[in-house]
Write a structure and sequence with these properties.
The chain has two domains: 68 residues, Arc Repressor Mutant, subunit A, CATH 1.10.10; 198 residues, Rossmann fold, CATH 3.40.50.2020. Helix content is 37%, strand content 25%. It is an alpha/beta fold. Homodimer. InterPro entries: PRTase-like (IPR029057), PRTase_dom (IPR000836), Pur/Pyrimidine_PRTase (IPR050118), PuR_N (IPR015265), PurR_Bsub (IPR010078), WH-like_DNA-bd_sf (IPR036388), WH_DNA-bd_sf (IPR036390).
Length: 275
């Protein structure tokens, strides 16, 4: 049934938002709405302009017989800057201070609104990078990594610290934990979770000494694959030398005072390095 332009625009926008990074031929929309390709092209021009002006993302047009349109859910510089400022304001409270100088993030990990914004911001950093999988360790950082994987439209790979029979054969490594006692930990990944020659993005919630991220990097090497980037939400204070410096952080914990329970958080190097 032929539809009105207003209806087409709403339905078309919804379809694009639900199918990021997917090349959609104009014939699909033309048949769906029983409209000429010229009318569909005009509609898409409106959507493209609105997406750009509102910071919703980029609508790429691919010319040719096999072409179409592709929605890239990339945040613009201004929106990312504002988002990081909002995140700092949300976390810069003494009530979030935990023993050991950690910052309480669990409520954000369970809030869909924050998860969407965090995931989209991190994914925006890697929109132009070839990525096959997003990797994280089985902790509270999983929801963030899952959100990043959604916006990049790639699978999520979760590294565990103990194998289960349902995972089949696994690859395991030993790594030095972030603890001041330099304890040796173990992490494992099912052989079926990651293909060889994969391009992997590592995402985690926190970094202190860098042992967990360095361990995941070593695990990726065991699969003859490549780490193309690593990003965390917050970088904690650490007096020693971190196991790795090859990462970006949305936020940085500048100071923690356990006596008067004050905490100071500022913008990390995520924006300055990549935006």
């Amino acid at each position: 049934m032929k539809t009105k332009r207003s209806e087409r625009l709403v339905d078309m926008t919804h379809y694009l938002l639900e199918n990021p990074h997917t090349l959609i031929p104009l014939t699909l929309f033309s048949k769906k709405y029983e409209s000429a390709k010229s009318s569909i092209s005009e509609d898409l021009a409106i959507v493209k302009r609105t997406f750009s002006e509102r910071g919703i993302g980029i609508l790429e047009t691919v010319p040719g017989a096999a072409g179409g349109v592709k929605y890239i859910p990339k945040m613009n510089r201004k929106d990312i800057k504002n988002f990081i400022a909002d995140l700092i304001e949300e976390l810069n409270h003494s009530k979030r201070l935990l023993p050991g100088g950690y910052v309480y993030l669990s409520d954000l990990m369970g809030d869909p609104k924050w998860l969407r914004r965090i995931g989209r911001a991190i994914a925006s950093q890697y929109m132009e990078t070839e990525i096959d999988s997003v990797m994280t360790v089985a902790t509270k950082g999983v929801p963030v990594a899952q959100s990043v994987a959604f916006y990049l439209d790639v699978p999520l790979v979760i590294v565990s610290r103990d194998s289960k029979v349902t995972e089949g054969s696994t690859v395991s490594i030993n790594y030095v934990s972030d603890s001041s006692f330099a304890r040796v930990g173990k992490m494992e990944l099912s052989r079926r979770s990651l293909n060889t020659d994969s391009k992997v993005l590592i995402v985690d919630d926190f970094i202190k000494g860098g042992g967990t991220i360095n361990g995941m990097m070593s695990l990726v090497e065991e699969f003859d694959s490549e780490v193309v980037g690593a990003t965390v939400i917050a970088e904690n204070i650490y007096k020693g030398k971190r196991s790795t410096s090859d990462y970006t952080a949305l936020l940085k914990v500048d100071s923690v005072n356990s006596d008067d329970r004050t905490i100071a958080i500022s913008e990390g190097d995520f924006y300055s390095k990549n935006m």
